[in-house]
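Weekly modeling sync, notes
Attendees: AB, CL, MP (scribe)

Item 1: holo prediction request
CL wants a bound-state model with zinc ion before deciding which constructs to order. AB pointed out that an apo prediction alone won't tell us much about the pocket. Agreed to run with the ligand included and paste results into these notes for async review.

Input as submitted:
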Amino acid sequence: MSPRILSVASVTSLALFLTGCGSAQNGTPTAAPNAQHADHGADSEKAECAAAFAKLSDEDRPLVEAQGYCVVTSEPLGSMGPPLKLIVNEQPVFVCCKGCEKKAKSNPDKTLAKVEELKAKVKSESSN
Ligand SMILES: [Zn+2]
């Protein structure tokens, strides 16, 4: 019942997961993802997001980056840990946490409209 055992277990399964999805970044499994971002300054929130993004699969990461924000809370994806992937009307949609999953699924049309809105917002931000 120790929380420490739980977290060790989830780190182990993440490590297995990451090892299984490509060989490009296998060289430094213990390197802190935040370290490379330190020179960007005091933007620790972004560094946290980057760490969370690093846990996504190669397939999901670009989708999360394109969406950028939780469809329910509009919080940056990754700010609460790895984003959750949902399939809404056969489309991948990401939310920030388990609590948002129900809300996103309860109104698929609204959710998908919001995804398009968020993608447009991310695009306009990145072109500035
Ligand atoms: Zn959430």
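Recorded for review: The longest strand covers residues 84-88.
Action items: CL to compare against the apo run; MP to circulate these notes.
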